[in-house]
Amino acid sequence: MTSSELLQQLCTQVSDLLQVLSTEIEPRAAAALQFKATPASWSVLECLEHLNRYSRFYNPALRKALAVKPSSATHAEVGFSWLGRKSYEMVRPENRKLQKTLKHMNPSQSALNPKAVLTEFRQHQETLLELLRQAENADLNRKGVPVEFFRLLKLRVGEALLFVVAHQERHVQQAQRALQQYVAQRETAPRLVI
């Protein structure tokens, strides 16, 4: 896949995430956003806060990596290292295997303000779209984005962009499932008839 094809695909995916946020998540009441099907599961807000925590690290790291002037053709085929493939495989939405998150990235048991979490999530998505536009003139095969949990390891710029977007899709889908469980629970809950 060429750099321009990858970037176009990622822009579409981030735009789709913003659409889900606007149509499915933001209109919901706080009770729906805070609902947890089980004590161990994450609510919609926890899913988005988890993504906010990752964005606080990766958006600045991507901005810094993209500030470096390209040293080669920017429309080359995007290559992937072993680390990049492994990182993507772990977070891609189709991989239903549960992954253990780092303690500082786990929002479970956090007091979350719905408006603040949603606003920050939207801002991070808009920043990511801006970064994807900046990446059109970057060498996506250049290593330059540190891995959050072990910063000595570096992903290539293209790998990092793919990882970030796939990770977001995975947890937005998890948030959508939490909303579906909330709706299903409300529909099956016994009602008091007077």
TrEMBL record:
Pfam families from the UniProt entry: DinB_2
Question: What are the DinB-like domain coordinates in residue numbering?
Answer: 22-175
Q: Which InterPro entries match?
A: DinB-like, DinB/YfiT-like
Membrane-spanning intervals of the chain: none
Name the chain's protein: DinB family protein
Species, as recorded:
Hymenobacter lutimineralis
Lineage, highest ranks first: Bacteria, Pseudomonadati, Bacteroidota, Cytophagia, Cytophagales
